[in-house]
Amino acid sequence: MHKKFPNGFFWGAATASYQVEGGIENTDWAKAARENRVPPCGRACDHYHRYEEDFDIAKELGHTAHRFSLEWARIEPEEGKFDREAIEHYRKVISALRERNLEPIMTLWHFTQPLWFSESGGFERNDSPEIFARYAEFVTKELGHGVTHITTMNEPNVFATQGWINGEWPPFKVSSKPWQRSYTGQVIKKRSKISALKNYFLVMKNLADAHVLAYKVIKSTQSHTKVSIVKHIHVYLRPKGPLNKIRALFSNYLQNHRFTKRVYKYTDEIGVNYYQASQYGNDITDKKTDMGWNFTPEYIYDALVLMKKYKKPLFVSEAGLADHDDSDRAEYITKQVAATLQALEDGIDVRGHLYWSLLDNYEWALGFEKRFGLVEVNYETLERTIRPSAYVYKKIIEENSVVE
Ligand code: BGC
Fold first, then answer.
1. Residue whose C-alpha is closest to residue 67's, from 36, 31, 103
2. Would the pLDDT of 178 be above 70?
């Protein structure tokens, strides 16, 4: 019999503005969609107009917290000009959460950038930390009193890796790795690859500075706010062979620790986004999610352990899977929650658990096909249907423990 989670442990799910709201046209992603480089997002789940209905569902499912993000491009559509209507909208969103006793966990920026910002260089700009901090300050002044938990940014490493190393997301700075050859066998122009890599490190530095500056302005505006960073944590299991060992050590440092080391002194909490574990040189599991990712919910334990050394309260800010027919989600959630409870029992300070995601949504460059939601969305009718696994999660929340 498992022990219980502590009283006040928060339970819920997460969403991100661009992935669910719909109707956002002034971002780098919307522009990339117009250029046919990524799928269009369109009205998505129309969550912008249906957030109350969606929060009713979260409440019905027993949730006590909800992580959502603000769309920076709505709030600051032109450089330095802030939009009143957008702020009023998010004020209503926060009130709607509070009315339902859902603790708002607010992310200031989740991947998509206002077009004026990305077009003028985005996080390659030397003044990008100041620009981001100005936005953070404005938002905190306007909305901060209604929110205790503010995350500055979501997964900085994933943002920079996808944009500057893999080249799959805006700004598509490189389309192949530096050591690859083109399809004609020519070595790809070294200079451009190296400069993309150089810019990756520049972007990572600016993101770290942006977080630290934002932390300072948020705290000086609202000292009671708990400011966090949300980090994607990939668990690299110890491989065989010296070369693979070096690769694993390097990847673990680059993806999990390098950024965290730079910013942890300026965080009150750390959000852990966990999706999978892997091992170089070995396919560790036959079972895969619909993303083709390893089905490894139990290794969330290791992800939490990896962040222990920063001595900050942790929360699971995202964890979940794409599973179109809901055949594996209940098992995944149960194992993931059991491993989180084990981490707590082993002395790791975990304060909450947010499943990704409340709703099916726009899965970035893969469009709408992948189904992460506790709630299924019919994109034709926008009808919401609660999946059976959501009730398994509800039972866990009600028991405040793992239900086998
Ligand atoms: C991101 C989400 C994304 C999820 C599944 C996380 O990296 O924060 O926006 O949908 O993973 O890929």
1. 103
2. no
